[in-house]
Each structure stands twice: as structure tokens, then as C-alpha cells.
Amino acid sequence: MTPDLILPYDGVQPDFASRPVWCGRGSTVIGAARIGAQAWIGDEAVIRADGQAVALGDRFWLGHRSTVHIATLTHGTQVGDRVTVGRNSVVHACTVGSDVVIEDDVVILDGAEIGDGTVIEAGATVFPRTHLPGGYAYAGSPARQSRPVAPEEVAELAERLRERMGDGPALPPCDAPEVEASVFVARTARLRGRVSLGAGASVLFCCDLNAEVGPIVVGADTNIQDNTVIRTRAEGVVIGRDTTIAHNVRIADCRIGARALIGIGATIATGTLIADDVMLAAGATTDPGQILEAGYLWGGRPARILAPLDAGKRAMMIRIVEGYCRHGREYRAAQAALG
Question: How confident is residue 164, by pLDDT bands cut at 50, 70 and 90?
Fold first, then answer.
């Protein structure tokens, strides 16, 4: 089976080393990605090589709703052979060795290096530029050595993870909201209920926006990245303009201000109020009803102030918004070319 959506980027199509490759429902592969022999790509999984290359070795296994991506200006992603990734994990702009197990809900960040024969335990966050030597299991946020692991245990953990993956739940029907011409909604994104998208907004691949009760309102030029899930059960979700919601974020009823950045794999609890000009670090969580004050980098579980937002971080946040506005235009054109 081929992915539900294959798109070129900058004229480059994905390269599959062999066929058949198992690709689940709603899966998406984009750009300069090379995928090794005997790969398995789960339901609503995303491999996106738009600006740098992604190289995935033989017998690569990517679980349901997991994401592989790059850092456009700095890092590609390189993964060795016999690597198994669980559900809802993000492998981002990093280098991963061979015979590695990455369990569910893991985030691996830019410039990290994962040695051969490593296990990253469920829920861990590997911080940027971290080097994790092979032969150990790592847990926590930031990920730290928890115990040595032998090759036989790594192989057994990989087999167990693959066996319990099974099929994902049936994909629910989705709506086709009317949006203006400047908005990008990926074909593999799923929008249901009262979803309003401001001019220039983008909803990327395999996102799930379910306005089950209250509405979801997204401001102008805001980007919602791959595999983010937003679900309302009460008053709804409002996100301000010029904001970035990164990959695999989970958002309940809340308010998020303008010019904010919500990091990869973060979880926003019901009733959270995030002010304008806030950066929430990757893998962070908020408590129900928590208020995140403007002008700071927040991180941790639950989130706390880590540092004031300096000029460098503010400039980076602006660059990301500008880059995703550009991606939105490019992907609209690429999808239209498919007919």
C-alpha cells in the first residue's frame, strides 16, 4: 500500500527503497524522504522532508499518529536500520542509530544523537543536542539513563511494541469547512464541527480538530502542525494570530494568545489561559485552569517559568510563523496539482 498522500517538495518526490511498503490510513510522506526496505508506516503517521532530507533505514516502523520531521534551516533526520517508533511520538531533526526502540509519546528534538541499541521509554523528552550513548534505556524529561539494556531485550521490546500496535480505530467522518483562498488545510487533516480559520492559517497533515461542543477559532497566519489534536468538550478553543502549534500537541478547551509558540508534544489542559508572547517548551504540560503569563519561556510538567523571552527566541518565533505561511502557499499549490 502507498501512503494516502504523497507530495513533492521543491520538486523532489519521496523515494521508497522497495515496494510493497505498508502504509496506514491517512498516512503522509512528503519531499526528500528516503525510506528503506520493509518499512511500516502507521495510520495518520507523517514523514515530512521539506527543506532538509530524511533518511530512514531498512525495517523502519513508525506507529500510528507519529511524526518524522526536520529543522528547515539546520538539521535533517537520519535513522538507522531496525528502528521501531510507537504511537504519537515525534522524531525531529535528529540522528538515531540502529536497533533502537522509541516507545509511545516520546519527543526527540533537534540535534539529538541516539546511539545504537537504545530504548527511549514512553513519555520521555530528549532535549536538543543531547547525546545518548547506546546500550541503555532512557526515561523522563529530560531523558536520563535509567538502566543498561542488552541487544536481546531491545529486540524483544521492539517485537512487543509492533505486536500491540494493531490497527488504529476507524477514522471518523470529517467536514469540509468553507475557508478563504489563503488558508491551507491538508487533505489528511480532519476537521469536524464549528471550526473557524483566519486568513493565512494552516492546518497540516493528519491534524484532528474536533469542535465536539464549543467552537475552535484559529487566528490569522497561525499554523497547526502535523498530528496535533484539538478537541472541545465545553466552551471551546480560541488561538490568537501569528501563533505556532507544533507537532503532536494535545489541546483541550482553553485560550492561547497571539504570537505564542506551543512546543512539540505539549499538552494543554482544560481551562488553561496562555497569554500573548509565550513560548511553551516541547513536552510540557499545563494544569487545568493554569495561567501562563506573557513574555516568558515556560516548561516542565506542570509548566513553570524558565526564563524571560529574549530577542533571539522572539525572532525565532517570528521566523517559524513566516516559514509556515510560505509552506501553506506551497502545499496549497501541490495539493491542487494532484487534482
Answer: confident
Q: Is the distance from CB of 58 to CB of 36 less than 8 angstroms?
A: yes
Q: Are 65 and 248 in contact (CB under 8 A)?
A: yes
Q: How many CB atoms lie within 10 A of CB 35?
A: 26
Q: Which value, in Å, is the radius of gyration of the alpha carbons in the chain? A: 19
State whether 137 and 251 are in the same domain: no
- Res 169: pLDDT: 67
pLDDT tens digit sequence for 308-332: 999 999 999 999 999 999 999 999 9
The per-residue pLDDT of the chain, averaged, comes to 95
* CATH classification of the domain holding 332: 2.160.10.10
State the amino acid at position 217 in one-letter form: V
Expressed as residue numbers, the domain containing 206 is: 184-338
Q: Tell me whether residue 178 is in a domain.
A: no
Report angle CA 174, 331, 169 to the nearest 5 degrees: 30
Q: Indicate the helix (H) or strand (E) that contains 36.
A: none
Given a contact cutoff of 8 angstroms between Cβ atoms, the answer to whether 216 and 230 are in contact is yes
Residue 173: inside a domain = no
CB 256 within 8 A of CB 275: no
**Number of independent structural domains in the chain:** 2
Return the C-alpha torsion angle 116, 122, 123, 128, nearest 10.
0
Cβ–Cβ under 8 Å, residues 320 and 313 = no
Q: For residue 237, list its beta bridge partners.
A: 216, 254
Half-sphere exposure of 221 (CA within 13 A, CB side): 14
